[in-house]
Hints:
CATH architecture of the largest domain: Up-down Bundle
Number of strands: 2
Number of domains: 2
Helix content: over 70%
Radius of gyration: 23 Å
Distance between the termini: 53 Å
Strand order of the largest sheet: 1-2
CATH superfamily of the largest domain: GntR ligand-binding domain-like
Shape: elongated
Number of helices: 11
Largest sheet: 2 strands, antiparallel
Structural class: mainly alpha
Amino acid sequence: MPRLVATDIAAKLKKRIEAGEWLEQGRIPPERDLAAEFGVARNTVRRAVGLLQESGAVSREVGRGTFLVAANVDTLAGAIKRMEGASPADMMEIRELLEPAAAAFAATNASAGEIEAVREAHLAACDAIEMPVFEHWDAEFHHRIFSCSRNEFLREIHNLMRVLRNQAPWFEMKKRSFSEERRQTYCQEHEAILVALSKRDSDSAREAMLQHLKSVGRNLLGR
């Protein structure tokens, strides 16, 4: 039972942290204050705060207190936490900045084997009729282009964006916008990108990717 109470308190504290209740102070109240507020022993609060620490929401500093990790703009965890709320429109704008550059780099830097891996993902997407299967290979097509770019930092940024786009709201939005006609259009646009990569034409690869993303944006966002 004490473990359950600690879990409940941790969940309540996390909701308050996410709501920004202690953002200005940068820390949560002392354990004795929280124990009095929740009407429990300090050991129970200590376990709850320990759960928050394990999740990366807070950090403890002996003699100073318990600080909000996400409140620090200089922490990677804080930045990623804020990215979770990025709008689809913001995400598409960033994709239009990064993915054409990745395609241009791939046209110049990819090996023949890496381009063949992009081709395999493209062909698998063309053969996929069901939406979840197509989405898998569509995402893999783009992922392999980033891998071809030979830019590790750019690839890791894309990996982060890929995680964010795999969240339930994104999938539901893609599901609503999916149709056989659009699937065929995307495959044609992927083909244009692949042709440019095969020709080692970085300018054409950049432009083909940009036009594809604009098409995706229109279908997802209705504009």
